[in-house]
Design goal:
Elements: H1 3-9, E1 41-42, E2 45-48, E3 52-54, H2 55-58, E4 59-60, E5 69-72, E6 79-83, H3 84-93, E7 106-111, E8 113-116, H4 118-131, E9 138-142, E10 149-152, E11 156-167, E12 172-183, E13 186-208, E14 223-229, H5 230-233, E15 247-249, E16 264-266, E17 268-270, E18 275-281, E19 286-293, E20 297-298, E21 302-307, E22 312-320, E23 323-327, H6 328-332
Signal peptide: 1-21
GO biological process, one term: bacterial-type flagellum assembly
Keywords: Cell projection, Cilium, Flagellum, Periplasm, Signal
């Protein structure tokens, strides 16, 4: 039955297909305590799939004609309000055991939907731009936002680029994107969206998965590889993820941003003033002595160490936390 005719059968003026019955800023009023129990109950918050609202969507309980369509559903993702008068007329028409106990009684109906996001739309534009000579690895920055599309949840979406213009000199583009939704062989929704913006080439660089503060050490679990706009990578960015492992943050390094060499330092294994064990590497034996670090150093760094017994200053190589090695050649160039 045509829904307009069905609406007239309810004794009402024709209802618009997607417009709400009242401003959607209302709140659902609490129903007064029922004087007596009824066979049917109102569903105050309703989510529907499809283009129509049925009797059984609005009321629960025994409903002989519950599958009858009574109203047009709102647009996908939108909602509408069914007021008390209309609810009462529906109940009378379908001989339901229900009456509103207050004029504040109402039902809110929302239509289920799925979103074709801006990212999905830009992905299709990016593929089309690649065929026109744009960089394969790129980021598209649209001139405007807010072009995501709500489609019926039960429909199958499709996105394609109908028109496209691209200027490789300025890296700017403009396009018209077709968004459609089908149910079986039937197209139930179609929309054209204008998307324009600029193409930025990207470079794969290691970034951190979490922000690290000064002094924290980078582990393999802290690193991932991301495509970052080339103009934001800049000079001094570390491009080898393995070069980050074990390094210490010289200052805070933010999540998701390229890591620069001047933000890193070799992990400090010996701090200035630390007590250390000095290993003397000789041809025939190894000797140990106690010392004090006169400067900080990381793995492999040559630092000055004071032999606290002989009171001599030596150059030693940091090998472990609080451990340094002095070979024979190093002792010959000891500093006083």
């Amino acid at each position: 039955m045509n829904l307009r005719i069905l609406t007239l059968a309810l004794g009402l003026a024709a209802l618009p297909g997607t417009a709400p019955a009242q401003s959607l800023g209302v709140q659902i009023a609490a129903a007064p305590a029922a004087a007596e129990e009824t066979l049917n109950a109102l569903n105050p918050v309703i989510t529907v799939r499809g283009a129509t609202i049925r009797v059984s969507d609005v009321f629960s309980g025994p409903i002989p004609k519950g599958d009858r369509a009574i109203l047009n559903a709102p647009a996908p993702g939108e909602r509408m309000v069914i007021e008390a008068d209309l609810l009462a007329r529906i109940a009378r028409l379908y001989e339901l055991d229900w009456k509103p106990l207050s004029r504040d009684i109402r039902a809110v109906v929302k239509r289920d939907s799925r979103t074709v996001s801006e990212a999905e739309i830009l992905d299709e534009v990016r593929l089309a731009l690649t065929d026109r000579g744009a960089p394969t690895e790129s980021e598209l920055v649209p001139a405007t936002a807010g072009f995501a599309v709500q489609l019926p949840a039960e429909a199958t979406p499709a996105v394609s680029v109908g028109q496209l213009a691209y200027d490789p000199r300025t890296q700017r583009f403009s396009s018209v994107v077709d968004v459609t939704a089908t149910e079986g062989d039937r197209v139930v929704y179609t929309r054209q969206i204008a998307v324009a913006g600029r193409v930025f080439e990207t470079t794969a660089v290691p970034v951190l998965t979490t922000t690290l503060n000064r002094g924290e050490v980078i582990s393999a679990h802290d690193i991932t590889v991301a495509n970052v706009r080339t103009d934001r990578v800049g000079d001094g960015a570390v491009t080898d993820p393995y070069a980050l492992v074990g390094k210490q943050a010289r200052r805070q390094i933010k999540e998701g941003e390229p890591v620069r060499a001047n933000q890193l330092q070799t992990q400090v294994l010996v701090s200035r003033g630390d007590e250390v064990v000095i290993f003397y590497a000789l041809k025939t034996m190894n000797l140990t002595a106690k010392g004090k670090a006169l400067e900080a150093g990381g793995q492999g760094d040559m630092i000055r160490i004071l032999n606290t017994k002989s009171n001599r200053t030596l150059l030693a190589k940091v090998v472990q936390p609080h451990q340094v090695v002095v070979d024979v050649i190093s002792t010959q160039s000891a500093l006083r």
